[in-house]
């Protein structure tokens, strides 16, 4: 069985797209820097470690600032 389960992850992050994006960015950070937010991990790979951080609640999605205007929106 996979750990953490998709159900546990979906309870922390609202959409699969946000989850994949967040985990990919964090996995890159872990691969380059290797400083974890948890004391111990079950996974050896950066993506698994990132998903464990999401499941533990220490890694969350940042709230987007609604007042920001991007170039493609002008």
Chain-wise SSE layout:
Elements: H1 6-12, H2 16-33, H3 46-56
Task: Kindly report the average pLDDT value.
Answer: 83
Q: How many H/I helical runs?
A: 3
| Portion in strands | under 5%
N-to-C SSE string, H for helix and E for strand: HHH
Major beta-sheet overview: none
Query: What gross morphology would you assign?
Result: globular
Number of DSSP-assigned strands: 0
Count of distinct structural domains:
1
What does this structure look like?
There is one protein chain. With 74 residues, this protein is an all-alpha fold. It has one domain. It contains 3 helices and no strands. Helix 2 crosses helix 3 (46-56). It is globular and about 40 Å long. The mean pLDDT is 83.
Nutshell version of this structure?
This protein has three helices and no strands. The chain is mainly alpha-helical and 74 residues long. The chain has one domain.
Search tags:
globular, mainly alpha
């Amino acid at each position: 069985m996979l750990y953490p389960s998709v159900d546990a992850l979906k309870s922390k992050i609202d959409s699969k797209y946000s989850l994949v994006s967040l985990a990919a960015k964090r996995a890159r950070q872990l691969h380059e820097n290797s400083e974890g937010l948890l004391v111990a991990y079950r996974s050896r790979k950066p993506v698994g470690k990132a998903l464990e951080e999401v499941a533990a609640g220490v890694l969350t999605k940042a709230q987007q600032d609604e007042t920001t205007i991007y170039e493609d929106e002008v």
